[in-house]
Amino acid sequence: MLTGPTLASRRSVRTTVVEVGPVRFGDGGFVLIGGPCAIESATQIDTIAAAVSAAGGAMLRGGAYKPRTSPYDFQGLGADALPLINEAAQRSGLPAVVEVLAEAQVALMAAYVDMLQIGARNMQNVPLLRAAARSGMPILVKRGAAATLDEILFAAEYILLEGNERVILCERGIRGFDPQTRNVCDLGGAIRLKELTHLPVILDPSHASGRRSMIEPLTLAAAAAGLDGAIVETHPEPDASRSDAAQAIDLPAFARLAARVRAVRAALDEGQPALEARIGAARGAGVDRAELIGDRPL
Ligand code: PEP
Ligand code: MN
């Protein structure tokens, strides 16, 4: 367990707002990010960007360097993909997030994208965390497949210690025993994470489930629970995706999802005020005071 206050610890009921261009994570809204697992062509990423934007999505995702489990699978277009997503982002007005796999890629990626993603496989790659932090860019840190909440908080801590406070955490499922889902979507863990840290927390329902049919219910659950957003694999022809086809939704499904997220948020009045009330009540009652360590100075 965390034994004392850290830079990532929640100190008050407020969530830190992380800005990525015009997009604000942590201000009580729900930031929907759409895009393919892998950038495959200019037409593919352009088509998706236009659809995500039209649906009310706030950001564009796309992989350039893909950390595939098998070296025989499609590894992404690499550096060639960066200008493609950069142009699609500019045309659509959506900031772009792309995974960085290695320290040597940080400088190049910083020229083309708006937010760096540290993937599950690299969550504890300390030199990469530090190099990404020193770019000064916003960083999306995904939870490792078998990482505890303390471990992802300490990954964030490496970035914060470099003086970069632009950190967003992402629950993307943890390793379970049941092959019915690719991973176990730890929604409870994500809710707990928001109690422990002032940083915004989002959900990746695609990698958390591995199943197209589960994207909408998981995203709506995240929206209802007061998380700060979701990152969803989206493709014009999901079955033709060169990676992660089974967990991509098509463009009409993304538009429906965005509309239903808005409906859930409007109906439930969740988000920042509700979160603040819940955390404030816990602190006031002395519940979990040792773990909500924010009232002690750093
Ligand atoms: C991805 O976002 O495409 C990805 C590889 O995610 P993760 O690191 O969560 O497996
Ligand atoms: Mn993927």
Descriptive overview:
With 298 residues, this protein is of the alpha/beta class. It has a single domain (18-270), classed as TIM Barrel. The protein is 37% helix and 13% strand. It contains 10 helices and 10 strands. The protein has helices at 42-55, 81-92, 106-112, 126-134, 149-161, 187-196, 205-209, 215-224, 251-268, 272-284, and strands spanning 18-20, 23-25, 31-35, 59-61, 96-99, 115-118, 139-142, 167-171, 201-203, 229-233. The strands form 2 sheets. An 8-stranded parallel beta sheet has the order 9-8-7-6-5-4-3-10. It has a two-stranded antiparallel ribbon with strand order 1-2. The longest helix has 18 residues, at 251-268. The structure holds phosphoenolpyruvate (PEP) and manganese (II) ion. The site of manganese (II) ion has 5 residues, from loops.
Condensed summary:
By secondary structure, this protein is α/β, with parallel strands linked by helices. It is 37% helix and 13% strand.
Question: What is the topology?
Answer:
Elements: E1 18-20, E2 23-25, E3 31-35, H1 42-55, E4 59-61, H2 81-92, E5 96-99, H3 106-112, E6 115-118, H4 126-134, E7 139-142, H5 149-161, E8 167-171, H6 187-196, E9 201-203, H7 205-209, H8 215-224, E10 229-233, H9 251-268, H10 272-284
Parallel strand pairs: 3-4, 3-10, 4-5, 5-6, 6-7, 7-8, 8-9
Antiparallel strand pairs: 1-2
Helix pairs in contact: 1-2, 1-9, 4-5, 8-9
This protein binds phosphoenolpyruvate and manganese (II) ion.
Manganese (II) ion is lined by residues 37, 207, 233, 243-244.
CATH superfamily, by name, is: Aldolase class I
How far is the N terminus from the C terminus? 17 Å
Return the CATH architecture.
Answer: Alpha-Beta Barrel
The percent range for strand residues is: 5-15%
Helix fraction?
25-40%
Q: Kindly state the number of beta strands.
A: 10
Low-confidence stretches: 287-298
Could you give a short account of the major beta sheet? 8 strands, parallel
CATH topology: TIM Barrel
Query: Rough shape?
Result: globular
Number of helices: 10
Give the ordered list of helices and strands.
EEEHEHEHEHEHEHEHHEHH
Strand order of the largest sheet: 9-8-7-6-5-4-3-10
How many domains comprise the coordinates? Answer: 1
Bound molecules: phosphoenolpyruvate, manganese (II) ion
Radius of gyration over C-alpha positions, nearest whole angstrom: 18 Å
Helix-strand makeup class: alpha/beta
